[in-house]
């Protein structure tokens, strides 16, 4: 492949890079924090993200792992 074709292909892949795990690295980081008893507010401060982002990651992790709720992450 030419350098131009490789550059175009690289730009075409947007968003997060693919990974082989069920959860994204960000979701695992949030799950780890939940398992250590941290509140959404504390997790948000530690990770430099909004509380809504924490809730989003928790919701996704719960769904992907087939759990009923956040308590089951612990």
Structure description:
- The chain is mainly alpha-helical and 74 residues long.
- It contains four helices and no strands.
- It has helices spanning 3-12, 25-35, 40-47, 51-64.
- Helix 2 (25-35) crosses helix 4 and helix 3 (40-47) crosses helix 4 (51-64).
- The model has no long low-confidence stretch (mean pLDDT 85).
Short description:
By secondary structure, the chain is mainly α. The protein is built from four helices and no strands.
Layout of helices and strands:
Elements: H1 3-12, H2 25-35, H3 40-47, H4 51-64
Helix pairs in contact: 2-4, 3-4
Overall pLDDT: 85
Q: How does the major sheet shape up?
A: none
| Termini gap | 48 Å
Gyration radius (Cα, Å) is 16 Å
Features:
single chain, 74 residues, mainly alpha, 58% helix, globular
């Amino acid at each position: 492949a030419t350098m131009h074709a490789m550059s175009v292909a690289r730009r075409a892949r947007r968003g997060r890079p693919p990974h082989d795990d069920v959860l994204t690295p960000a979701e695992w980081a949030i799950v780890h924090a939940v398992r250590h008893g941290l509140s959404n507010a504390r997790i948000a401060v530690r990770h430099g993200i909004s509380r809504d982002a924490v809730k989003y990651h928790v919701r996704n992790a719960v769904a992907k792992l087939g759990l009923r709720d956040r308590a089951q992450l612990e």
